[in-house]
What we know:
Blueprint lengths: L1 E6 L6 H13 L8 E5 L7 H4 L2 E2 L7 H11 L10 E3 L4 E4 L6 H9 L2 H7 L2 H13 L5 E5 L6 H9 L3 E6 L3 H21 L4 E9 L6 H14 L5 E4 L11 H7 L9 H16 L4 H13 L3 H14 L4 H15 L3 H17 L4 H11 L5 H17 L4 H15 L2 H14 L4 H13 L3 H14 L6 H11 L3 H14 L4 H13 L3 H7 L7 H10 L3 H12 L6 H17 L5 H14 L11 H12 L5 H14 L9
Parallel strand pairs: 1-6, 1-7, 2-5, 2-6, 7-8, 8-9
Antiparallel strand pairs: 3-4, 4-5
Helix pairs in contact: 1-11, 12-13, 13-14, 14-16, 15-16, 16-17, 17-18, 18-19, 18-20, 19-20, 20-21, 20-22, 21-22, 22-23, 23-24, 24-25, 26-27, 26-28, 27-28, 28-29, 28-31, 30-31
Amino acid sequence: MFVTFYSYKGGVGRTLALANIAYLLANDEKESCKILLWDFDLEAPGLQQMFSVKWGQKKQGFVDLVYKYMSDAKIPEVASYIHKTDVNNIDILPAGYVDKAYSEKLEKINWVTLYNKARGYDFIENLKAQIGEFKYDYILIDSRTGYSDVGNICVSQLPDLAILLFRLNNQNVEGTKKVYNIILNTNKAQNKDIAVLPVLSPVWPFVGNFEANRQIEKIQNFFKNLPLYEITFESALTAREKIICRDIKKMKARVRAIPKIYEDYIELTSAIRRSNPNDPLTIEKEAIAMRREGEYEESAKLLQTLVNLRPDNAPYWRRLLDTTILARNRSSDFINKFNNFLEDYTKNNPKNPFVFFTRAELRSLSSYSKDLESALQDYNKAVDLSPNNTEILIGRARFYEQKCKDYNKAINDLNNALKIKYDSISAYRLRGITYIDMKDYDQAIRDFLKVLELNPEDPIAHSHISRAYFLCGKFEEAKNSINKHLATRKADIYGRLLYSHIMAALDKKEESLEGMKNGVFSSTDRAEIFIVNFELDRALKYIDDMLGKKIISSRDVIILNFLKQCALILKHEKDEVSKDKFDELINKKKEKLADLGWSFEEFKVFLSRSFKNKLITTEQNTEIEKLIKSIAGDIQQPTM
């Protein structure tokens, strides 16, 4: 985006505002920008005084470039005239190295002649096109003051956005109005859309000044719907102009009071970013708004633009993936297009780890073994390209844990992630979950305690640690942890289900059954809680009632029939008809059992506890274990 900073008169802090805003854009903690400063104030260049220019072998700038064009009638390559500065992400096209030769060249440049006889308009357009190839986010132009040929170029040809700075006096106000009208006429005549931000600078404490208030009212009426921004007078800048934003950012912890001008610069910087439809923050904000409205496809398209602009920004890829997952349930056509986008991206950017990681995460959602094998290949490629990226390592570990059930490989990736980022809560949490899968409950508990050490307010660590305590038989510790979890997440269904299991294990049937009243439990969860409390008649009646309804899923049909068989065994009853029906159901649905998503571990704790306390016989325990194996034991994981 080309942004011109213009003032009709001097002394309004135009160059100072440009320099500070350039610094804020280049050093934005969330989304830094690549900046080019273009000093078009050729008679009194100031930008190269604000920033230390790293001159190359040729100490040349814009004046030298224009002079060469006029001498050779050939447009030079602008890259030879752009220099680095002492600030990262900020380059400069300076006016030139100010010496006698500079003055002589400047005197020979006649902009009227250049435009009328040497295709000056095309010359400037060519420079803009060349600069556009360098992928700067913002080109900030410091314009000459007053009415001039240079000033007209800066406000009517160069910019996408014009920042008009003025003092609160008649000369400034009237001059600025005329320039604003020039911009409006240019927009109309040339079908342009140059945006304008009016800025009152510097703002003095005009408390009770009737004339000042009258002027402000006139300005607001003239600019109509445009917001009027302000830059407050700062006495510390009167003796020496400096980039105050740089000083404050460096010494923020030691600055007792942040000057108002710093806040003004930040506000104006934000307004500039909002005015730029191609700014990553603007695109992200619009994408988030569309996603909230349920416009997932449009949101994902914007995010595709965003990752093209910022290919190395992992959070943008994650947001794109999450939005695409939401869109996939609505449009298979969009998913096909997105897969094509990823395919093209991998071909054109084979060294970008995030595109492979994004495709791996999307493929990992599939239930087809071929897709899962491709997902693992993409995970491996992403890790090869970025071996020290903790998010990618954690993503592959999650795939190993959930899809492959290869817990050792998952632990290895998580250990490596923690070597890189020792305080990664995500890595500790997933490692704890993996240790539960491996039945190493003590190590799981240590990891969840580490999560709570790093973040005592972690929303789900207490739930995980409670489950680890429960599965290793430490029921009192499990109760304490689940109560802490439910104190802040009362509506969590799994937390309430675990609470009911824990209360049952502590022989507190009333509390266990009461726990079901405080959550929207599934039919399978309710049936399970009835059984673990030995409410077998209630369980059988409830299961038969649910099986009589045709609205339950095929998954729930399998689990409810399993629980029915368990209840019958515990009652020492046999129902050959229902047993045959269950066996037939298992054989029919065997290929879908991997999708059940139902944990048998809590139920196994109930069996173990009941057998230990002689509440069930060896024969009953063996029969139920066979039932569990008939379901869980036959689930085939993808071969990797």
